[in-house]
Design the sequence.
């Protein structure tokens, strides 16, 4: 087991280097140089040159690459061209907002998805099952920005139950994490975007759960459990659902890995100050350090979460050994 | 069978050869009657999602020129790539669409007369990307630059506009209007400035609350990126920084330079200007503002070649302090925009803070301390900037502060306008939202007032004057007759804007500097365009392709 984890960690490290190199190259091959979006065209040419030199962009690609890799090994992602602040600081600033939104949405989607999926498999062929599938697929297929706008229109503009935009009431004071995130005002702002995102994510755990439940339900030991005279609920949740969970765990782990990237459309529709918007902006402005840093962290998280999912397997299913 | 195939091939080959010979021969014949072919052209335009109007207008022009027998394609291009091409070393382009935004300092004619039209800037990287060159014009552009008397300068600028309109250095297609909105039930007495809109530097100083809500929420759909004056490069950063930091002179609503942190200035001679600093001012941390702070600020900007203001401080040679209150600027040469742009743009920084930070460009400036009418309270990236009224300020500000609230989309702002979370906007409303607010369905926008200010900026079709056919003035005049200005304004802009025209760079929104007497080619008339080309000696060969004059 330990040897397995070690081996995987090594592979991950190699992959990170590979991915980083690819990301580095990808951004350099993007059209336009970063100064185009940084300076006004009316600024003299020398000024633009000076800017290129400040950021080391006048160096050869190879020199830039070696500097980039050297810094990366020391976990130094450099400074954002736009914010003139360290990349990690910019990311840190925006990360909590994204993670809280994504995890709330995930809990919403996975709790409903797992129980709903199991139940749907149990009631296979019923009208409620097809209703459940249709419901989850509608929100999976509908554009999230449209769902978001409808949700705002209904719950914020017409019913006025929840605020429409942002993460807190305008002018809200508070500096510490506790003051900012652990209060009713924040929760009120969280509801609409979390539900919109949650509805979008719902289909994945729900349908995976349903499918794997269907498989499990045809196993002999389920029949055995029935034969023992156990109650339906006990058979469903104790015997079947636990075994059907594995694929959902994989999907969940991968989801957490990518959660840091956020849901850009939802962040835009609700003006949620998350990292997703920041990453998109960094790319369009050719803010190389910020974009590179975000993508490297993002891909690392996906790989690490994958590893964790594999390790979790061994605990959830004793038949699996490494 | 094989032989048959071979003969077929041979016959085909001979036919092809014969037709090539024949075609070649015809070209020979043609060229004796005609000038050279008008070369194949490419218009680099905007991606439709980036600027639909530019995209449509270049398609329209390509179609019109196509009808006249010019082989031309409009090629949608990413903005960054377009800048790379037109500012590139090779200057390899025929035509393109782009625009100059109407920033307030561009109300001074120097930018739109000298910077973008003078032959000195027609080299790679210069702003005269049309490569327009006319020595008569150059003389006027130089003269207005060094003419310190405003009225004389205006006469020169007016004459320069006449030449640009005659030569059609570029074809301006349209200007947008700055249509914005505010809550008229909560605030009154806002100013509206062309090129700036509602959240200009005056509104926060003069607007008055009508209710007990004394802190207006200003909506922005663009984030603030940097609060360091040496690194701030966006208009959105500066719209806040100029309220936190003070300036010696501010441009009034009707764009006359008004002494502000200065009590006045004296033009000693063409290259020497004495500015007197207002007494008794303090920075937000209580330290008095001195002439040393002013000298430091200007010199710090002079040392930064790539700052936002690089072009404005470039003419300054040295700065001296005379007594306690006078700052003497020695210029390298007479520079007319000195008062209207240089003095109105450079912020006064507290020397006691900035001289201790080392490399000013690397300083975070998380908590800006200035001497302006508003005191910085906090900024949350992607959310809001909060500023309070500075109680020790010499001008009586009527609101208690303001909150600059950052949104991710205009749709979000519209819902918050309806919910009265937002009191005014700081960006131009999109046409769909203007119409929605005007329709006022169910009275949901009754509390909003729509304001409209003409924009001094403009969008245009640039033509490489070094290349045929655009090196031919008559061809450019013909192009000015092929642009459907009404289509741009009435259809694509829903009427929110103003018409363009050949060589129009200073439009009517810039009342003082615009020359209303100049005749402008601004009618869409393809027949007239054809006639202009015929009169200029352009011909069409037997295949209908346009030929340059012999």
Sequence:
């Amino acid at each position: 087991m330990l040897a397995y984890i070690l081996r995987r960690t090594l592979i991950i490290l190699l992959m990170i280097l590979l991915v980083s190199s690819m990301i580095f190259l990808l951004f350099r091959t993007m059209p336009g140089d970063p100064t185009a979006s940084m300076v006004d065209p009316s600024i003299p040419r020398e000024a633009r040159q000076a800017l290129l030199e400040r950021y080391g962009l006048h160096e050869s690609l190879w020199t830039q690459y070696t500097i980039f890799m050297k810094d990366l090994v020391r976990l130094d992602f450099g400074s954002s061209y736009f914010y003139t602040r360290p990349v990690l600081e910019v990311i840190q600033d925006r990360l909590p907002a994204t993670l809280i939104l994504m995890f709330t949405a995930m809990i919403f989607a996975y709790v409903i998805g797992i129980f709903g999926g199991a139940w749907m498999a149990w009631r296979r062929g019923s009208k409620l099952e097809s209703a459940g599938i249709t419901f989850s697929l509608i929100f999976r297929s509908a554009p999230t920005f449209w769902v978001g706008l409808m949700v705002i229109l209904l719950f914020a503009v017409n019913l006025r139950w929840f605020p429409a935009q942002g993460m807190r009431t305008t002018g809200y004071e508070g500096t510490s994490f506790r003051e900012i995130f652990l209060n009713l005002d924040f929760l009120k702002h969280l509801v609409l975007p979390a539900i919109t995102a949650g509805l979008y994510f719902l289909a994945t755990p729900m349908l995976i759960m349903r499918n794997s439940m269907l498989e499990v339900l045809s196993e002999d030991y389920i029949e055995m459990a029935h034969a023992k005279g156990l109650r339906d609920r006990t058979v469903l949740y104790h015997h079947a659902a636990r075994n059907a969970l594995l694929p959902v765990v994989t999907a969940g782990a991968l989801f957490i890995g990518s959660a840091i990237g956020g849901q850009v459309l939802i962040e835009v529709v609700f003006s949620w100050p998350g990292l997703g918007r920041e990453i998109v902006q960094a790319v369009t402005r050719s803010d190389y350090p910020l974009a590179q840093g975000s993508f490297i962290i993002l891909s690392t998280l996906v790989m690490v979460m994958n590893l964790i999912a594999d390790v979790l397997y061994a605990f959830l299913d004793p038949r699996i050994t490494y | 069978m094989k032989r048959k195939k071979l003969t077929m091939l041979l016959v085909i080959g001979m036919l092809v050869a014969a037709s090539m010979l024949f075609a070649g021969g015809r070209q020979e014949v043609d060229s004796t009657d005609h000038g050279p072919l008008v070369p194949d052209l490419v218009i680099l335009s905007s991606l439709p999602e980036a600027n639909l109007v530019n995209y449509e207008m270049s398609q329209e022009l390509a179609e019109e020129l196509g009808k006249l027998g010019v082989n031309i394609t409009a090629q949608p291009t990413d903005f960054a790539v377009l800048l790379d091409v037109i500012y590139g070393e090779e200057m390899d382009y025929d035509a393109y669409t782009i625009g100059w935004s109407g920033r307030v300092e561009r109300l001074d004619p120097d930018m739109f007369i000298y910077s973008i039209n003078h032959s000195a800037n027609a080299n790679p990287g210069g702003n005269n990307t049309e490569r327009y060159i006319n020595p008569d014009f150059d003389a006027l552009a130089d003269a207005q630059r060094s003419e310190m008397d405003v009225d004389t300068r205006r006469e020169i600028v007016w004459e320069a506009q006449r030449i640009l309109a005659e030569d059609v250095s570029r074809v301006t297609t349209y200007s947008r209007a700055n249509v914005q909105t505010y809550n008229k039930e909560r605030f009154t007495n806002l100013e509206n400035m062309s090129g700036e809109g509602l959240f200009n530097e005056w509104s926060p100083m003069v607007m008055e609350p009508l209710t007990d809500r004394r802190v207006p929420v200003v909506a922005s759909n663009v984030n603030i990126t940097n609060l360091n004056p040496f690194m701030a490069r966006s208009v959105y950063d500066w719209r806040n920084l100029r309220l936190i930091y003070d300036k010696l002179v501010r441009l009034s609503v009707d764009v006359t330079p008004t002494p502000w942190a200065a009590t006045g200035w004296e033009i000693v001679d063409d290259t020497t200007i004495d500015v007197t600093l207002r007494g008794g001012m303090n920075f937000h941390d209580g330290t008095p503002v001195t002439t040393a702070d002013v000298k430091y600020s200007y010199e710090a900007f002079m040392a930064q070649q790539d700052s936002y203001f690089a072009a404005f401080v470039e003419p300054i040679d040295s700065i001296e302090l005379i007594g306690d209150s006078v700052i003497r600027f020695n210029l390298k040469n007479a520079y007319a925009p000195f008062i209207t742009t240089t003095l109105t743009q450079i912020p006064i920084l507290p020397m006691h803070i900035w001289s201790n930070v080392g490399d000013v460009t690397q300083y975070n400036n998380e908590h800006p301390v200035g001497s302006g009418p508003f005191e910085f309270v906090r900024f949350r990236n992607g959310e809001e900037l909060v500023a309070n009224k500075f109680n020790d300020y010499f001008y009586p500000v009527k609101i208690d502060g303001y909150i600059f609230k950052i949104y991710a989309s205009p749709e979000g702002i519209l819902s918050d306008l309806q919910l009265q979370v937002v009191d005014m906007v700081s960006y131009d409303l999109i046409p769909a939202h203007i119409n929605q607010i005007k329709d006022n369905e169910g009275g949901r926008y009754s509390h909003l007032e729509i304001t409209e200010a003409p924009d001094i900026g403009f969008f245009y079709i640039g033509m490489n004057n070094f290349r045929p056919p655009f090196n031919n003035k008559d061809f450019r005049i013909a192009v000015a007759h092929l642009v459907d200005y009404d289509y741009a304004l009435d259809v694509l802009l829903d009427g929110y804007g103003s018409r363009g025209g050949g060589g129009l760079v200073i439009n009517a929104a810039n009342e003082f500097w615009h020359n209303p007497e100049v005749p402008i080619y601004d009618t869409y008339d393809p027949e007239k365009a054809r006639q202009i080309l015929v009169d200029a000696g352009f011909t069409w060969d037997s295949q209908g392709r346009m030929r340059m004059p012999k």
